[in-house]
Design brief:
Structural class: mainly beta
Radius of gyration: 20 Å
Oligomer: single chain
Shape: globular
Largest sheet: 6 strands, parallel
Number of helices: 3
Length: about 325
């Protein structure tokens, strides 16, 4: 017999309470959205972290949503002899290998106060790693708005994210390459020339911090190695995909945010100002389906509809309300 929404919510909270007792979930982070029947929480992810999945190998993720969750990793180690580690975290998936992610999204929780004021709690990806001594090789800390990494022909189609993404790395004594960060609005990294991003966009806040000490002299850098779409993306194919620089604007900062690696823009990708972001005609000209009449064909199915609508409160295109899925506890 199928459980009611109330029974599923009660069951989910009971499971989270047990995980909190074991120290796997932060008890003070558990929040319920009774109107939508959802629960958000913070947990320790390890080196591959995603709110939906830490790692995927093949398969299809279709019409899935993460709303207002947090993916947080705070790691520390003593000495690295060789280095070379990669720590991948994404709002949806930490590392997607050969996976098709289609018509999926990372959205904020909308809260309305008694006086009618509307606020948004955005999903958050925070990946932090401290290393006391780095001997030879370096390491990189990755944070992405949808995935931390795409590899082995992984595809992202008709997706969007508004997640806040932050990466921090610190090496306090280093005689080698040191530590670096990589932060990308849709993915922090991509390996393999067969990976692709198509008709997807990012409208969240990107930030980073690096601390490296050459012998004992500290070198501190803020908001480096950011990219609105993908940062470390060797051979990645990107088409009709854009990002919103104003979402990353913070008082007192001057962020340099290219679109792809170090490229500021490309033939069919790049930054858009707020006026263009709310222009439905622009997005329709890029192939985004606002009428719900374009049949798509992918690994998911030979014929399906990926419908978009404009959310004028957020000032961005989002997925159509007629085709919508959430994590429903």
């Amino acid at each position: 017999e199928q459980m009611s929404r109330e029974e599923r919510l009660t069951s989910a909270l009971a499971e989270l309470d047990e995980l909190a007792r074991k120290g796997l979930v932060r008890r003070d982070s558990i929040r319920t959205d009774e109107e939508n029947g959802m629960v958000s929480f913070t947990y320790r992810c390890g080196v591959l972290g995603g709110i939906l999945a830490g790692e995927t190998n093949g398969g299809v993720i279709y019409n899935c949503e993460v709303r207002g969750g947090r993916c947080v990793s705070n790691s520390t180690s003593a000495v690295a002899a060789l280095g070379g580690e990669g720590l991948y975290m994404g709002a949806l998936v930490g590392a997607a290998s050969g996976t098709v992610i289609e018509y999926s999204r990372v959205t904020p929780i909308r809260e309305v106060a008694a006086d009618g004021a509307v606020t948004y709690q955005h999903a958050s990806v925070k990946n932090s790693y401290d290393k006391a001594v780095g001997a030879l090789g370096g390491f990189t800390v990755y944070a992405g708005g949808v995935t931390g990494q795409l590899s082995n022909g992984a595809q992202m189609i008709d997706c969007f994210s508004t997640a806040d993404c932050y990466a921090y790395c610190g090496t306090y004594v280093s005689v080698g390459a040191g530590a670096t960060v990589s932060v990308g609005g849709l993915t922090a990294s991509a390996y393999d020339s067969n990976c692709s991003i198509e008709r997807s966009h990012y409208a969240g806040n990107l930030s980073s911090k690096q601390y490296n000490a050459l012998i004992v002299i500290p070198i501190i850098e803020y908001n480096v190695y950011l990219a609105g779409l993908a940062r470390r993306a060797d051979g990645l194919s990107v088409s009709e995909s854009y990002f919103k620089p104003s979402a990353s604007a913070e008082e007192g900062t001057n962020k340099k945010i290219p679109a792809l690696n170090d490229a500021a823009t490309g033939p069919s990708f790049g930054p858009l100002d707020d006026n263009v972001y709310v222009d439905r005609d622009f997005w329709e000209g890029c192939g985004y389906d606002f009428a719900g009449g374009i049949e798509r064909s992918s690994v998911y199915s030979a014929s399906h509809i990926n419908k978009w609508v404009m959310d004028y409160d957020l000032g961005i295109p989002v997925h159509g309300s007629s085709i919508k899925a959430t994590f429903d506890f």
